[in-house]
Design a protein that fits this description.
alpha+beta, 3 domains, 9-stranded mixed β-sheet, 4-stranded mixed β-sheet, 8 helices, 18 strands, about 35% helix, about 30% strand
Length: about 350
């Protein structure tokens, strides 16, 4: 069967590649001039990008076909590798931003807190809410599982840098009044990195359930095929298809069956290795964003021990945020506390202690 591609489709794809290539180099700080796909264009790239991305030079040509001094733009060849290197060199891995103002609700949030939170084994005393710009770290993580097939996903995880709680924020980069903020320090990223990774692992396991199930089904299918095949060999170990052949001795039959069993175990081990899941979770970008919120001081008393906490009413989601379990870092609205140190625990960790 022959599959043909119409010239109109090819032209549409060429124009999409042309647009992508121009935006790629312009957004990386360069200048690109490529008016029509029929003729080559030109690029002037920043020296640092040209060096880091291993571009042909700081000035070179773009075209749909290969020619001396021209970078061919297409889905094959080296262009996609070049584009990947340019993005690695030019796209910032972190940034600091601020959303300056939002409407904040009444300062008395006692009723909301009482309806939202449950303190299982302690008493709470609430203070007056105060407005503040609260720092959040929005992590973008890439997760992957590799076996005889590959599964990938991107996770966006926002964490309140003060409480360590994972917060379900909307896309902050769609907020019209978001702007850069040099007052936020990158040194604080480490405080939320481990929590972002822990949450990313949980999301990876949840999101990849169907993929893992398919891999397990394929593994079990191939195991059955191997076992059926080697069982048949074991049954035939004591039989001879040739009439003139001597009847094998019990020792020979046992030796053949042992050899078949050893080979089966070796093949099953190879199969397990081929289907073994190798997981990877790595950070790609972190954005530090200050967001308006109301901060409510809370004093928790557990027996004779007292400890101060804070709860946050988030102006973007317009509701109270969860608190973070001191042990598993999961967010919770139903908390228990330890006796001496008054550490906050989710109900699952409180039962395990």
């Amino acid at each position: 069967m022959t599959i043909s591609v119409s010239s109109a489709s090819a032209t549409a794809l060429d124009r999409e590649l042309q647009t992508f290539a121009v935006e790629l180099f312009e957004r990386s700080g360069g200048v690109a001039d490529w008016p029509t796909v029929e003729a080559p264009g030109s690029v002037v790239a920043p020296p640092e990008v040209a060096k880091a991305a291993h571009l042909p030079s700081e000035e070179f040509s773009l075209g749909l076909t290969a020619a001396p001094g021209t970078l061919p733009v297409g889905l094959g060849g080296e262009f996609l590798d070049v584009a990947s290197r340019v993005l690695q060199a030019a796209v910032p891995r972190d940034g600091s931003f601020c959303i300056p103002e939002r409407y904040l609700t009444s300062r008395d949030l006692t009723d909301k807190i009482v309806k939202t939170f449950a303190w299982q084994n302690a008493r709470a005393k609430y203070g007056t809410a105060e407005p503040a710009l609260v720092e959040y770290h929005v992590w973008t993580l890439q997760g992957a599982l590799q076996s005889e097939d590959v599964w990938e996903a991107i996770f966006h995880i926002a964490i309140n840098a003060e409480t360590g709680a994972v917060v379900d924020l909307p896309d902050v980069f769609q907020e019209p009044d978001l702007h850069g903020d040099d007052s936020v320090s990158a040194s604080e990223d480490r405080s939320t990195y481990a929590k972002a990774i822990a949450e990313g692992k949980r999301r990876l396991l949840t999101a990849s359930v169907e993929f893992v199930h398919r891999i397990e089904q394929r593994l079990e299918r191939d195991r059955k095929r191997l076992r059926d095949y080697y069982r048949a060999l074991a049954r035939e170990a004591g039989n001879s298809k040739r009439r003139t052949a001597a009847v094998p001795s019990p020792e020979d039959i046992a030796a053949k069956k042992r050899a078949v069993d050893v080979e089966l175990r070796r093949k099953l081990a190879e199969l397990n290795e081929n289907y073994g899941l190798r997981a990877e979770l790595r950070p790609i970008v972190v954005a530090r964003v200050r967001i308006p919120a109301l901060v409510v001081p809370i004093t928790i008393q557990r027996k004779q021990a007292i400890r101060d906490y804070q709860v946050y009413w988030n102006a973007l989601v317009k509701k109270l945020e969860p608190l973070s379990c001191s042990r598993c870092h999961r967010g919770t609205f139903s908390a228990a506390f330890t006796n001496e140190t008054v550490d906050l625990l989710c109900l699952a960790c409180a039962v395990e202690k």
